[in-house]
C-alpha cells in the first residue's frame, strides 16, 4: 500500500520535483488529463464489476503452483501475486509477471479458472521481455509529458527497449533532451505507479485514443475482437496486450541510450517518427554492472578491431559492401574451410549458381511479390532505360529486367528440376557460398552486421517426407558441432504456423511434430513460439550467445512446402509414381561476414589459432640471425601458417616481444645464436608463457595439428 500512496503523491513528477523538471515539464496538456479522466471512469466500473462477479459466483478454482503443490483460490479475486506471496516474499518481490496455463499474465490480474501457474523473473528471456516492455511505457509516459509526443509503438528488444513517437513534421528529439527525458523516466519509475489492466470496447478504445491517429489505425487493423486491453500507468494510458510489471517501482535502474528517426510503416503514407531507445534493470547495481560490461564491449567493437588489425574496411564508393584485406580474408577463408570440411563429412554437395537472374525466376519463386523492395534490379546494357511507369514499384517488371539474387533457394530449385530425379538421389543436400545482395537502407548499414552484399553457408536439402526427421536431426547435430568449436552456447525456438499459412493443415501438423520430436531427442532446452513460423513452413530459430553472453541470431532450420510446389519439383518414388520432395533451408553461420564480426567481438581480437590472422611472428635476437629467421618464416608459410617476421633492429628484443603480444600473435618464435646453430626456435605465447626450445620442424608440425583440430586454446596445450 505504501508504494501506491507514494505513487499518487508523485503522479505529476514534473510539477513538483527539482527545478530542472519544473522548467522542463509543461503542465500536462488538456487531452492527457481528459484521457486519464475517462480511463479512471472505466477503471472504477471494472473494479466494481470484478468485485461483484467474485461475490456472486463465489467459485473456488484449483491452482497448481510451481513445484506441483495445488491450492484453492477464488475466481475473479485471487491474484498470482497473492499466491507468490504465499510461496515466498522473495518470489513475490522478484517476479515480473506470471504464466497462467502457459500464457503471459499480469501478477495483479485476478485468476478466472483452474490453472497451472508459473512465475517469470528477470532472469529468463520472457521475464526480461516483460520488464523491458514495461519500461518502454515509462519512456512513453515521459515523452508525452515532456515533449507532447504522439505515441506509436514501444516494444522490448533483445537488449532493452525503444519507443517510437511523432513530434510533428519538423521536430526531432535533440541529444540534449535525452538526459532530461531520462530523469523523468527515473522519477516515474521511483514513483512506483501501478500498471492497471482495463478491458475496453472498440467504441471506448476509439474514445480514449481519439487524438492519436496511429493508435486509431492500430485499433482498426489489429483489434479484431469486441474488446481489447489498455493499460493505465500514471498519466499514461496505452493500448497494449500486456502483461506488465506490477508497478514501475520494480525498475531500479534505467538508462536512455540513443535517439534516431524511424518510419511508420503501417499501410498508408509513411511518416517520420522519433525513436528513443534505452535499457533498464531491477536494481541500480545491475545497471552499473551492465554499463561496465558495455564499455568493455565497445573496446571489442568489431569495426574497431577490424581497423586495428587491418582485417577489413568500407569505402563510400561501395556502400554496404566490405573490402576484406589479406588478414581479414584469412579469417574468412578459415571459417569457410571449416564449414566445407563439415560438408564433406555430412554428405553435402557444394555447387555454384548464378548471381544475376531474370525477374521471371523471382516471380515464380514469389520473391518479386514479397521481397521486391529488398532486391537490386537492373537492366542489361544496350537496352533502353525503362520508362518511368516501369521503374516504379509496378507489380510486373519489364521483360528483360534482371535482379541480383537475395537468396540461393530458387537457383537450387532450378538445379533440382533440370533433369528427372529418383528417390535414390534423396536426400539431395546442395550447399552454396554464392554472394547474395539485399537492398538494405543506407541508414541501417553499420559494420559487418548489416550488409548489401554477403555470403552465407547456405544449403538446401531436398528430401522425401519420411527422411525429414533424420535430416532435421542431422541439421541440429551440425549446429551443435560448429557452435561448440566456436565457443557459443545456443538456444532454439520452434516457430509454428502463423495465421494465413499456406498449404494443408495436416502437412503442417506432421511437420511441426517432426521438428518438435527432433528437438526433444536433441535434448537441449528450447522454446515454443506459436504463430511465429513463415507462411510457407515451420522453422527452428537458433540464438547463439557469444563469450560476452550477448545473443545473436545466426542459424536457422526452415521447412518449406511452397517452393517445391511453385517449381513443381518431383522425383520418381520407390513405387514408380512421381512424388513431391520437402525442402529444408538451413544455415549454421548465417552470413559469414556477420559471423566474422561476432567472432571478432567474442574473442576481443585474440583469435583462436585456427582462425588467427596473427599466428606466429619470428623475432631474431640480432641482425646475424635475420637470415635464419627468414628461413623459419618460410617453413611456417610453406606449411600454410601465418608467419610474420619482426627484424626491426631499431627496437630491443623485449620491446619486439611486447609488440607481438599486444598484436595478439598466438606464438612468438625467438631465434638467437644458439637456436640458429641447432635449427630450433624458442617459443613464447601471447600471454607470455615460455614454452622453451623446440626443433623448428617439430614446432611447425605441432602448430598444424593444433590448427587442424580447431582447438580454442592452442597456447595452453601446445
Ligand atoms: Zn505494454
Ligand atoms: Zn533458402
UniProtKB/TrEMBL annotation:
Tree of life domain: Eukaryota
Gene Ontology cellular-component terms for this entry are: mitochondrion
Chief localisation class: cytoplasm
Q: Which InterPro entries match?
A: aa-tRNA-synt_IIb, aa-tRNA-synth_II, aa-tRNA-synth_II/BPL/LPL, Anticodon-bd, Anticodon-bd_dom_sf, Beta-grasp_dom_sf, TGS, TGS-like
Where in or outside the cell is it found?
Answer: Cytoplasm
Q: Which GO terms describe its molecular function?
A: ATP binding; threonine-tRNA ligase activity
EC number in record: 6.1.1.3
Please name the CDD domains in this protein's record: TGS_ThrRS, ThrRS_anticodon, ThrRS_core
Its EC top class is ligase
List this protein's GO terms for biological process: threonyl-tRNA aminoacylation
Reply yes or no: does the keyword Endoplasmic reticulum apply. no
Domain Aminoacyl-transfer RNA synthetases class-II family profile positions: 296-608
Q: What reaction(s) does this enzyme catalyze?
A: tRNA(Thr) + L-threonine + ATP = L-threonyl-tRNA(Thr) + AMP + diphosphate + H(+)
All copies of the TGS domain together span 55-121
| Keywords in alphabetical order | Acetylation, Aminoacyl-tRNA synthetase, ATP-binding, Cytoplasm, Ligase, Nucleotide-binding, Protein biosynthesis
Q: Which family does the UniProt entry place this protein in? A: Belongs to the class-II aminoacyl-tRNA synthetase family.
Question: Function, please?
Answer: Catalyzes the attachment of threonine to tRNA(Thr) in a two-step reaction: threonine is first activated by ATP to form Thr-AMP and then transferred to the acceptor end of tRNA(Thr). Also edits incorrectly charged tRNA(Thr) via its editing domain.
For this protein, the record's HAMAP family field holds: Thr_tRNA_synth
Q: What is this protein called?
A: Probable threonine--tRNA ligase, cytoplasmic
The lineage is: Eukaryota, Metazoa, Chordata, Craniata, Vertebrata
Amino acid at each position: 500500500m505504501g508504494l501506491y500512496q507514494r505513487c499518487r503523491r508523485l503522479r505529476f513528477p514534473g510539477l513538483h520535483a527539482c527545478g530542472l523538471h519544473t522548467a522542463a515539464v509543461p503542465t500536462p496538456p488538456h487531452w492527457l488529463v481528459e484521457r486519464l479522466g475517462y480511463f479512471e471512469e472505466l477503471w472504477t466500473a471494472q473494479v466494481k464489476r470484478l468485485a461483484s462477479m467474485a461475490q456472486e459466483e463465489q467459485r473456488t478454482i484449483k491452482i497448481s503452483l510451481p513445484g506441483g503443490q495445488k491450492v484453492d483460490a477464488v475466481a475473479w479475486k485471487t491474484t498470482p501475486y497473492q499466491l507468490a506471496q504465499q510461496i515466498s516474499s522473495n518470489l513475490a518481490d522478484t517476479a515480473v509477471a506470471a504464466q497462467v496455463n502457459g500464457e503471459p499474465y499480469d501478477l495483479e490480474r485476478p485468476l478466472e479458472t483452474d490453472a497451472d501457474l508459473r512465475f517469470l523473473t528477470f532472469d529468463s528471456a520472457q521475464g526480461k521481455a516483460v520488464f523491458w516492455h514495461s519500461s518502454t511505457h515509462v519512456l512513453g509516459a515521459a515523452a508525452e509529458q515532456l515533449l507532447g509526443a504522439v505515441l506509436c509503438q514501444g516494444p522490448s528488444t533483445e537488449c532493452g527497449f525503444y519507443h517510437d513517437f511523432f513530434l510533428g513534421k519538423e521536430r526531432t528529439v535533440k541529444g540534449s533532451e535525452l538526459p532530461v527525458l531520462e530523469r523523468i523516466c527515473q522519477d516515474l519509475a521511483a514513483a512506483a505507479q501501478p500498471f492497471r489492466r482495463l478491458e475496453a470496447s472498440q467504441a471506448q478504445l476509439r474514445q480514449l485514443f481519439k487524438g492519436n491517429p496511429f493508435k486509431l489505425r492500430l485499433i482498426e487493423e489489429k483489434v479484431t475482437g469486441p474488446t481489447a486491453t489498455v493499460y493505465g500507468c500514471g498519466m499514461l494510458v496505452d493500448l497494449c496486450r500486456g502483461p506488465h510489471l506490477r508497478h514501475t517501482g520494480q525498475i531500479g535502474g534505467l538508462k536512455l541510450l540513443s535517439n534516431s528517426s524511424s518510419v511508420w510503416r503501417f499501410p498508408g503514407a509513411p511518416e517520420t517518427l522519433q525513436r528513443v531507445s534505452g535499457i533498464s534493470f531491477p536494481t541500480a547495481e545491475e545497471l552499473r554492472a551492465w554499463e561496465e560490461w558495455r564499455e568493455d564491449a565497445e573496446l571489442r567493437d568489431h569495426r574497431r578491431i577490424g581497423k586495428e588489425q587491418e582485417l577489413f574496411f568500407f569505402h563510400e564508393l561501395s556502400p554496404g559492401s566490405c573490402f576484406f584485406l589479406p588478414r581479414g580474408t584469412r579469417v574468412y577463408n578459415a571459417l569457410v574451410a571449416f564449414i566445407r570440411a563439415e560438408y564433406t563429412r555430412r554428405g553435402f554437395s557444394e555447387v555454384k549458381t548464378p548471381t544475376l537472374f531474370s525477374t521471371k525466376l523471382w516471380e515464380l519463386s514469389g520473391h518479386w511479390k514479397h521481397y521486391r523492395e529488398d532486391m537490386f534490379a537492373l537492366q542489361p546494357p544496350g537496352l533502353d532505360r525503362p520508362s518511368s511507369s516501369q521503374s516504379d514499384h509496378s507489380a510486373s517488371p519489364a521483360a528483360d529486367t534482371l535482379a541480383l539474387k537475395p537468396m540461393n533457394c530458387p537457383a537450387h530449385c532450378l538445379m533440382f528440376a533440370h533433369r528427372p530425379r529418383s528417390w535414390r538421389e534423396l536426400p539431395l543436400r546442395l550447399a552454396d557460398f554464392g554472394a547474395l545482395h539485399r537492398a538494405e537502407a543506407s541508414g541501417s548499414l553499420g559494420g559487418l552486421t548489416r550488409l548489401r552484399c554477403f555470403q552465407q553457408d547456405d544449403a538446401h536439402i531436398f528430401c522425401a517426407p519420411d527422411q525429414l526427421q533424420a535430416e532435421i536431426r542431422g541439421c541440429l547435430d551440425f549446429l551443435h558441432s560448429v557452435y561448440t568449436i566456436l565457443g557459443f552456447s545456443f538456444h532454439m525456438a520452434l516457430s509454428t504456423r502463423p495465421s494465413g499459412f499456406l498449404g494443408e493443415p495436416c502437412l503442417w501438423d506432421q511437420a511441426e511434430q517432426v521438428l518438435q520430436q527432433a528437438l526433444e531427442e536433441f535434448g537441449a532446452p528450447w522454446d515454443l513460439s506459436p504463430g511465429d513460423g513463415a507462411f510457407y513452413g515451420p522453422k527452428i530459430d537458433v540464438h547463439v550467445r557469444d563469450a560476452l553472453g550477448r545473443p545473436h541470431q545466426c542459424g536457422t532450420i526452415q521447412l518449406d512446402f511452397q517452393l517445391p510446389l511453385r517449381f513443381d519439383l518431383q522425383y520418381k518414388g520407390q513405387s514408380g509414381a512421381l512424388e513431391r520432395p520437402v525442402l529444408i533451408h538451413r544455415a549454421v553461420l548465417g552470413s559469414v561476414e556477420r559471423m566474422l564480426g561476432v567472432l571478432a567481438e567474442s574473442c576481443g581480437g585474440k583469435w583462436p589459432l585456427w582462425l588467427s590472422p596473427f599466428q606466429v611472428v619470428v623475432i631474431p635476437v640480432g641482425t646475424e640471425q635475420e637470415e635464419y629467421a627468414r628461413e623459419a618464416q618460410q617453413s611456417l608459410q610453406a606449411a600454410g601458417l601465418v608467419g610474420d617476421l619482426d627484424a626491426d633492429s631499431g627496437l630491443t628484443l623485449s620491446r619486439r616481444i611486447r609488440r607481438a603480444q599486444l598484436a595478439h600473435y598466438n606464438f612468438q618464435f625467438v631465434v638467437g645464436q644458439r637456436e640458429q646453430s641447432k635449427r630450433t626456435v624458442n617459443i613464447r605465447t601471447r600471454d607470455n608463457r615460455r614454452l622453451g626450445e623446440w626443433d623448428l620442424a617439430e614446432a611447425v608440425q605441432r602448430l598444424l595439428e593444433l590448427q587442424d583440430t580447431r582447438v580454442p586454446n592452442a597456447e595452453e596445450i601446445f
